[in-house]
Every structure is written in structure tokens, then in C-alpha cells.
Amino acid sequence: MDKSRGGPNGTGTPETAVEVRTLADLARVAGVSAGTVSRALAGKSLVNIETRERIQVLARQYGFRPNQIASKLRSGRTGVIGVVIPLGPATGQPISDPFFMAILGHLADELTGSGYDIMLSRAIPDGTPDWLERITGSGMVDGVLLIGQSDQCAIIEQVAARYRPLVVWGNRAKGQRHITVGTDSELGGRLGAEHLIACGARRLAFVGDTAGVEIATRLKGARAAAQAAGLTIDHIPADLADERMRSQIGAALIASGADYDGIVAASDVIAMATLHVLHEAGRKVPGDIQLVGFDDLPMAGLTSPPLTTVRQEIAEGARVMVAKLKALIDGDVRQSRVMPPTLVVRETTRPTG
Prior knowledge:
Elements: H1 23-30, H2 34-41, H3 49-61, H4 68-75, E1 80-86, H5 98-113, E2 117-123, H6 131-136, E3 143-147, H7 153-160, E4 166-169, E5 179-183, H8 185-198, E6 204-207, H9 213-228, E7 233-236, H10 242-255, E8 262-265, H11 268-280, E9 290-295, E10 308-311, H12 314-329, E11 337-339, E12 342-344
């Protein structure tokens, strides 16, 4: 009988008389050292693939589970990544916001695929400047991913000066210390406004709360495009809590009697709310008002009419965020990445020319 094969006559069924509770027990069954077993179960390439696979099969057959807590204590790592959504002034914005759900899903896939667990936090700073330090200094995580900067760039910068494994989805500014992955928001805002102008729009508005740096930068790009065409663009603030947002949009676009014919929305969610308000008011899109969103969420192509929008590469951004964070955890030096946006033309704008 070859005990290293896990059972009599190589059947793969472990002998009930043999107990495997420790690495040493499994090493005796496999006929190798405990160090080889440890490396094999960790998937290390130092162990040849045949031996690695045989040890992993034996571990499953004997129901052996390494003491993960002890392993993490020895390595000084928790195996957990903090994923934090800093809301800042947008306290009414829920985690169920479609943009958050889209990027969270991609981040979760990347992190769990890399063997990490996730600790999710919805942070409302609300005058508490140590909100990020409480997370980074908790000892509960190996690194932190922030989804957005909100109006908290100064605090993120302070923490990044002494906490390296931190990567932020957001806007890159000159001289910025913290590592960001995100879209060129200024270019995106410009693309949206330029497209509306090319489609014949002349009375423009930008809808979105500019307290956060990303949205403010999109407005900057839209204004540059309008100015280049000899036009102006009004700013309409919009709360990201759904009911208040619709009320504000309705007041600005309908109740005020404003005669806009082109709207750049700061996000697809805002664009969809705008589309709903205009439909209820009997305003035709794109006949009366043309509309451009920002994000290209999966539902953007399912609205009626389908939404013209500026696409962010959310899935690729999530992949890059996790890759950069893992490198920072391992002590490597990383740089921010700015991804180019893409205009996706659908049916809320008229054909050009």
C-alpha cells in the first residue's frame, strides 16, 4: 500500500486510522518535508507541479485545513483589503448606487481571485478628519482601496504620506502624492460638450454636484469646450440622493422655464434621472433636448432612448487598482494611471452634420 496516494491500492480514499491534523502529519503521509507541504499548499513554484498537485489532493482527501490565522500572524498580514467609499457631502448617496455597484463588483472579482477577503466601509467624514486613519491604522487590513475622492483630497494626501498601500479611484492632480487610477475627467467633460455642440446644441447646461474633484473637473472640461465654440454652459447642482436629485433637476429644467437644448450630465445616474424628469414633463429627447451622460454603466444602453455617454473603463480600472495595491503591499514603487475616456454615441443625441 502506498500511503502517499491517500488510500489502499491507490483508491484515493484515506485510511481512517490515519489522522492528519498538522503539516507534519500530512508531510509523513506524502513522504516529504513539512516545508515542502507548506510551500505546496501555498501554491509556491519552488515545489514542482506534480508534487504540488499530489500534496493538494492529499490535503483535500484528509480534510486538512492549514491554520490560516497562525499563518497570517507569522507573515504579518491579514489577508484583508479595505474597500472604502468616502461620501463627503454626498451623504444621501447609497452604496447601491449603480456606479459603486459596478466598480465594487470588479474589485471584488480581482481581490478574491488574488486570495484576499474584503472589508467594505461607507465613510461619511462629516467633520471627522481621522476617518481614513482609523481604517489604515486599525491593523485589520493589508491595504486600502478608495472608490472616489469626494471632497477629501487633503485628508487622503495626509494619510498617503505615511501609509503606502493605498490606491484611489479618482482624479490625478499635479504634485499629488496618493496613487490614483481613473479617467481623464476633464477630457471626458470636453468630449461630452463638444459632441452636443457638433449635434447643434447651443444652450448648454451641466448637471452635477461639483463638491467632489472628479465632477468639478468634468465641468471644467465642458466649459472649455463651450468657450472654444463661443458659447457658455450653466451649472445646475444635483444631489445624488434620488428623490432630491429629481426635484432639483425638475426645478432647474422645467419649473424655471429654462430653454436648454443640450445637457452634459456628470454621471449616467444623473443623466437617467434627467431623462425621467424630461419624459414626465413631455420634453422629447433628443428632439427638444439632447443629453450626454458619463460612465457608460451597463444600463446606459437600456434606457429609452439609449443614452449617449462618455465611457470610463471601469473593469480595467479595477484590475489596475488591485495590481498597483498588491505591488505597494510588496514594497514596490507605483505611479498613478490616467485612462482616456471614449464617447459612446447612442440615441439621446441627434446625428452630427
